[in-house]
């Protein structure tokens, strides 16, 4: 097993949190002259709200930046830690930064695109299957939240089926719990029949 000390773990966790705290949807909305994206529609600083506010081109930019951040962080930093729980802790700090960003008043996104980026860093095939599940569910329902639940549920299942390292499906399960927690209002609206579609 690779040897590393507590200082390396703390440094990686801090880097993860700081990198995760850069919210691309907030930056893109301001550059696009719209001000704070958290004042519009769902008031969430994420890809879906970027789509509603600025259209699919800017939403694609935000999505790619979030995906790239998650994948690169895992490959360059997260994958250096072989211990399952250290790996989980370090990668989760990236998501915490995305959800509670240091640079944006601790009010950020819901961690979906960054989670998908982490998935690509772990297993591109499983991530593509999860992404395909997102597209299918959103295409059928028009609701991004349902797609997010499905995608994050699919990944750990696929990771187990293809015999990925334990760390991968443990992180996948943790991401599912985080996504469910950040979408608790969406879940309530789905149950009451009031969840908006992508265009609302």
Characterization of this structure:
The protein has 200 residues and is mostly helical. Helix content is 70%, strand content 0%. The protein is built from ten helices and no strands. The protein has helices at residues 6-20, 24-31, 47-54, 56-76, 84-99, 112-122, 124-141, 144-161, 166-182, 184-192. Helix 8 packs antiparallel against helix 9 (166-182). The longest helix is centred in the first third of the chain and has 21 residues, at 56-76. The protein starts with 5 loop residues before the first helix and ends in an 8-residue tail after the last helix. The model has no long low-confidence stretch (mean pLDDT 94).
Number of helices: 10
What order do the helices and strands follow? HHHHHHHHHH
- Rg from alpha-carbon coordinates: 16 Å
Mean pLDDT: 94
Helix percentage range: over 70%
């Amino acid at each position: 097993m690779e040897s590393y000390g507590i200082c390396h773990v703390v440094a990686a966790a801090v880097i993860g949190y700081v990198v995760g705290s850069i919210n691309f949807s907030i930056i893109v909305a301001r550059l696009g002259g719209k001000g704070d994206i958290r004042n519009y529609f769902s008031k969430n600083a994420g890809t879906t709200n970027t789509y509603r506010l600025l259209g699919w081109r800017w939403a694609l930019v935000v999505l790619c930046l979030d995906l790239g951040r998650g994948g690169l962080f895992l490959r360059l930093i997260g994958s250096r830690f072989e211990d399952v729980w250290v790996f989980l802790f370090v990668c989760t700090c990236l998501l915490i930064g995305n959800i509670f960003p240091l640079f944006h008043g601790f009010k950020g996104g819901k961690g979906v695109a960054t989670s998908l980026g982490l998935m690509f860093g772990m297993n591109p095939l499983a991530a593509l299957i999860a992404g395909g599940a997102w597209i299918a569910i959103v295409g059928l329902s028009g609701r991004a939240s349902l797609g997010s639940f499905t995608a994050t549920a699919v990944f750990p299942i696929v990771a187990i089926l293809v015999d990925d390292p334990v760390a991968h499906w443990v992180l996948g399960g943790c991401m599912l719990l985080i996504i469910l927690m950040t979408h608790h209002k969406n879940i309530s609206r789905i149950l009451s029949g009031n969840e908006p579609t992508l265009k609302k």
